[in-house]
Design brief:
This protein is 46% helix and 13% strand. It is α+β, with helices and mostly antiparallel strands and 61 residues long. The protein has one domain (7-53). The chain has a two-stranded parallel ribbon. The longest helix is centred in the N-terminal third of the chain and has 14 residues, at 7-20. The mean pLDDT is 82. This is Cysteine-rich domain-containing protein.
Length: 61
């Protein structure tokens, strides 16, 4: 959702996330992140089960 307030930063973060991806298939808790990954050309799925499966997940920008 950073694109709503800072589109240039969103582009920078998205580019880095796409370059850092180790797979073309991404699972995300966040719907906005899922959409961003698809915009970046990756296959993405949103699920609310991640915290139940893996506990707390920290994301760095």
């Amino acid at each position: 959702m950073i694109g709503c307030v800072n589109p240039k930063l969103q582009e920078k973060v998205l580019k880095r996330r796409i370059e850092d991806a180790t797979s073309k298939h991404i699972i995300s808790y966040c719907g906005s992140c899922r959409a961003s990954m698809e915009i970046g050309g990756l296959d993405s799925l949103q699920t609310k089960l991640l915290p139940k499966l893996y506990g707390v997940i920290y994301i760095t920008i």
